[in-house]
Amino acid sequence: MIEIAINGACGRMGSRIAALVFEDSELKLVAALERPGHQSLGKDVGLVAGCGDTGIIITTAFNAHADVLIDFSSPESAIAIGEICAKKNVAVVVGATGLNPQQHEKMQHFSRLIPCLVSPNMSVGVNVLFNLVAQVAKMVGKEFDIEIIETHHRFKKDSPSGTALRLAEKVCEATGRKMDEDVVYGRSGITGERPLNEIGIHAVRSGDVIGDHTVIFGSLGERIEITHRAHTRDTFVRGAIRAAKFIAKKPPGMYSMSDVLQIQP
């Protein structure tokens, strides 16, 4: 039995993680954490998640023993709880998006002490997409223009999505481009002819879209489009749970969903 703690347990993702962990016979929910002042503090997390009484009260303090903590909160909260997990010897799975380079560096530091898995997208399908996009980018080379379009719900706070950025990183790694030189974020005005190496990223915010990502490879006379659409947040939750099961008994280190899915680079 793998003991699971959840940080950000009352968020859109956190509540679904609580519900699916509670239903999984291989897992035991032991802690549900939220920020100070949250209106659900002191309540049973099952009542918030819609899965009935669990006996787990939502708190701010991480006092329980756990094998793995799953975090879908915010970059700042993920780093704060990561530091606590490093001291308590608890593995972490972080699905929060928008981590800056300094925060990624801190996660790397924690990974010297505990197993850490950080991914901008826990979906199995999206991680297959990362691999496919890298392969296609390498095959078509620089003769094809590459554009990335991501669409999310109106409530998403960061832009572009962490998934879109990771897709751009995969393209750069495969083709020798550089994120800080070749990636542009939307276009406006008279931008002139498209530079050869340019990668365009475009963020759309609309209604309640869970998450759509399309990568376009366009050349003169033909176009390749690869699209992933998430129909439910449970897609990401199931991926995170799969990651938690994978990382529970691993030694300290930084892991990825590619490790979970055994995708070869």
UniProtKB/TrEMBL annotation:
Q: One matching Pfam family, short form? A: DapB_C
Which InterPro entries does UniProt cross-reference here? DapB_C, DapB_N, DapB_N_CS, DHDPR_bac, NAD(P)-bd_dom_sf
The broad enzyme category this protein falls into is oxidoreductase
Residues bound to NAD(+)? 8-13, 34, 95-97, 119-122
Q: What superkingdom heads the lineage?
A: Bacteria
Write the record's keywords in alphabetical order, separated by commas. Amino-acid biosynthesis, Cytoplasm, Diaminopimelate biosynthesis, Lysine biosynthesis, NAD, NADP, Oxidoreductase
Q: Where is the Dihydrodipicolinate reductase N-terminal domain?
A: 2-122
Q: What is its main location?
A: cytoplasm
Q: Where in the cell is it found?
A: Cytoplasm
Where along the chain is the active site annotated? 152, 156
Which positions does UniProt annotate for (S)-2,3,4,5-tetrahydrodipicolinate binding? 153, 162-163
**EC number(s) on record?**
1.17.1.8
Q: Cell wall biogenesis/degradation: is it a keyword of this entry?
A: no
Quaternary data:
Homotetramer.
The free-text function statement in the UniProt record for this protein reads: Catalyzes the conversion of 4-hydroxy-tetrahydrodipicolinate (HTPA) to tetrahydrodipicolinate.
Hey, which family's this protein in?
Belongs to the DapB family.
What protein am I looking at?
4-hydroxy-tetrahydrodipicolinate reductase
Q: Which gene is the coding source of this polypeptide chain?
A: dapB
